[in-house]
Amino acid sequence: MNYEFVNFLVAVPMEVPAKEVSQEIASLSPNFASVYKQALVAETMNLTQLTGLGFRKALEFLVKDYAISKCPEDQQSIQRKPLAACINEYIKEEYLRECARRAAENFKIDVALIVQVRFSDAR
Predict the structure, then answer these.
(1) What span, in angstroms and rounded, lies between the C-alpha atoms of 27 and 93?
(2) How many domains does the chain have?
(3) What's this model's pTM, rounded to 2 decimal places?
(4) Which distant-in-sequence residues (6+ apart) come within 8 Å of 78 by Cβ?
(5) CA–CA separation, 38 vs 96, rounded Å?
(6) What is the pLDDT of residue 108?
């Protein structure tokens, strides 16, 4: 009797984190919610080069959308400004401004958690 050995590859879906962005934040910045969730997937897949970029881009969408919601007349200017300038000019609450600065510097911070905890205070 002849037996052949066959290797089987098994595909199992990767478990993606179930962190949800609050409805209030998702409606303020839909791009933030989308990019943030994609960055979480990249982090789960250990795509370290993409993860930091994704979290930073998500933060940029959130800060700029927040700034535009507060000063809609400055929309064109806000969209062209660097993230640091928007943080310094448009985030008035010191705690949020410092968290956003740290997040921008470190690329990876649980931005959604910080924002959800303090978002209503800034309004």
Answers:
(1) 21
(2) 1
(3) 0.74
(4) 64, 67, 68, 71, 86, 90
(5) 23
(6) 47
- In terms of residue numbers, what domain contains 107? 23-122
Model confidence over 52-104: pLDDT tens digits? Answer: 889 889 999 999 999 999 999 999 999 999 999 999 999 999 988 988 888 88
> Which tokens in the block code for residue 119?
């978002």
The pLDDT value recorded for residue 9 is 67
Radius of gyration over every alpha carbon of the chain, rounded to an integer in angstroms: 19
Instruction: Tell me the C-alpha distance between 60 and 64, whole Å.
Output: 6
Considering the domain boundaries, does residue 10 fall inside one? no
Asked whether residue 73 is assigned to any structural domain, the reply reads yes
Phi and psi (nearest 5°) for 11? -105, 120
- DSSP reduced 3-state for 107: coil
DSSP helix, strand, coil percent of the chain (3-state; round to 5) = 70, 0, 30
- Copy the structure tokens of residue 28: 């303020």
DSSP string of 64-76, one letter each residue: HHHHHHH-GGGHH
Vertex 92 angle, CA 86 and 97, to 5° = 65
